[in-house]
Specification:
EC number: 7.1.3.1
GO molecular function: diphosphate hydrolysis-driven proton transmembrane transporter activity; inorganic diphosphate phosphatase activity
Subcellular location: Endomembrane system
Protein name: H(+)-exporting diphosphatase
Distance between the termini: 50 Å
Membrane topology: Multi-pass membrane protein
Shape: globular
Order of helices and strands: HHHHEEHHHHHHHHEEHHHHHHHHHHHHH
Oligomer: single chain
Length: 769
Amino acid sequence: MGTAVLSELGTEILVPVCAVVGIVFSLIQWYLVSRVKLTAERQAPGSSPAGANKNGYNDYLIEEEEGLNDHSVVAKCADIQTAISEGATSFLFTEYQYVGVFMVAFAILIFLFLGSVEGFSTKSQPCTYDKQKTCKPALATAIFSTVSFLLGAFTSVVSGFLGMKIATYANARTTLEARKGVGKAFITAFRSGAVMGFLLAANGLLVLYIAINLFKLYYGEDWEGLFESITGYGLGGSSMALFGRVGGGIYTKAADVGADLVGKVERNIPEDDPRNPAVIADNVGDNVGDIAGMGSDLFGSYAESSCAALVVASISSFGINHDFTAMLYPLLISSVGILVCLITTLFATDFFEIKAVKEIEPALKKQLIISTVLMTVGIAIVTWIGLPSSFTIFNFGTQKVVKNWQLFLCVAVGLWAGLIIGFVTEYYTSNAYSPVQDVADSCRTGAATNVIFGLALGYKSVIIPIFAIAVGIFVSFSFAAMYGIAVAALGMLSTIATGLAIDAYGPISDNAGGIAEMAGMSHRIRERTDALDAAGNTTAAIGKGFAIGSAALVSLALFGAFVSRASISTVDVLTPKVFIGLIVGAMLPYWFSAMTMKSVGSAALKMVEEVRRQFNTIPGLMEGHAKPDYATCVKISTDASIKEMIPPGALVMLTPLIVGTFFGVETLSGVLAGALVSGVQIAISASNTGGAWDNAKKYIEAGASEHARTLGPKGSDPHKAAVIGDTIGDPLKDTSGPSLNILIKLMAVESLVFAPFFATHGGLLFKIF
């Protein structure tokens, strides 16, 4: 079999060092962003800080050219930023209080369910997969699974919260930099995104690594038990992500729909106009939904794919022979990923300079390509030094012999499938290509045709990503069974730091545009922030594509681990137990989407009524003489999202428990397969339909081409039809679509964590009858 080139000590050093490098790099980026001051400072002529030509501190400010008062603009930006930051922080604290109670209750549930497998006995027991050996008692698994669940939940919360903090710190700074040129604004927004990306990737890796080493002190040689209890980490990460995504999604879209319908369609005022009472709530929503929610979501994917790979590896030759370096192969991939993303980020911020608006989107796309190419080399090196030349992988009861180059191909297939999904998503959601332009063109004949074209585009956009995922699954399973699929998912997520940087860049640019409008800056600055925002919209859609693709692979890998752990020999679709699970599982994403869509609708209804009330009753509001009551709108969004996130969350968290306990593991395996198959399709089509409608509206507003000018300007009938399409798409692309990928992952990881209980005590109804 041979041993890995990299020694155990080398692994012990390499993983934490890479994580620390990621954290240090993110702090450096944060420092560079903080050098943009939010106080009006006049610079003496001739004095310029180091690197001034590069980062342009000695450029003229547009405001100075146009003779506007610089001080009042900066002060306004600082005030608006404070309002957004306070709104986002108070919402997240409220959300975390509610979710915290739920987490504690669920942690107790995990302990009780898993502890009861052996009747809370403290005696050692025969191992699940090798009855000749003795393993630690089930009670230990219960305690350690509960601890790792809480660790995962805590890391997920911290990731989301830190992301939100940096985004609200950077939004006004991006606006102020836009006065110096589009390149400066781009670098500020992108650096801020990178802070979040690297913090999250490094924290996730470091906490998981420390947890494994601490658990090892107790478990010793019992690696099967050790890595089974680590799966709680993925469950904790994803359950927090679910509430973050659903709660944040309802918050942001209630405000967005309310602001757009009354402001743009009824009152004909621009987006982010300070007279609109819902405008602060809308900008807060970008941070709590798109940043905090997205951060927790991708952290959950990362934690779960690592856990799925570790569980399978622990019962393969890596775990049986106690080969620590090969065992931590998933963590080594993530470690190299951080270094690769670090080099990639420098391409955007330091090696090349953006001088014109049209260079923004290509620069972001280059990030994806560069990181994928470099990561392919990185994976080859890790595979060569971290794995023996041949080894065996657990494959549903048998051990399959695998070569190290085959595992390299599994990871690479996942990585490149992610890139393909990203580019297909971009083709269907960017207004530079014909699909979105066709949707915009259909607005000539009103909102109905716009909706028809948008829905058709979403359904069509599912085709290529599904083929990419299917090829990825076939190749990786053929080479290395379920372990291959788990590392393919990790390959897709290996460039998570760059993916998140690109993703967080979008909402930061969106906020920057809103602040420019509210602070009354010139239309030239608003044009620049709009260009940043339009590119950000497309990259956000690419990020969602990545999240959905990786969720499909992750949940399949978790499904495989669950089937192995629950000792199911085959999942036979023709048996009634499995088939009823399959058909019910396929229905769950629809039930879940119905709940989240209706929540957005009812919250938006309250918001529209409040915005109308203020326009009708506050004298001088439309003329700009009176200030609107922003706080009431923020409160409506907060209350609605906290109340409405509980039922969808409960549906996802309770389904596996109820099905596993009453109907048994076969029916549960059917439910998981059904939810995976239908959830992925709905998630991709919902995200892309919403993204296309949003960019069709922006295409008409920007009026950049002859075709777009025939449809505009703002306020024309085609534009109003486009706004209606965008409003319908809002809950699709930012609430239901992105939350669905958490539904399929979370049900799978939860089933895996509770598998020992279901295998021992599950299927009560079938036992009675």
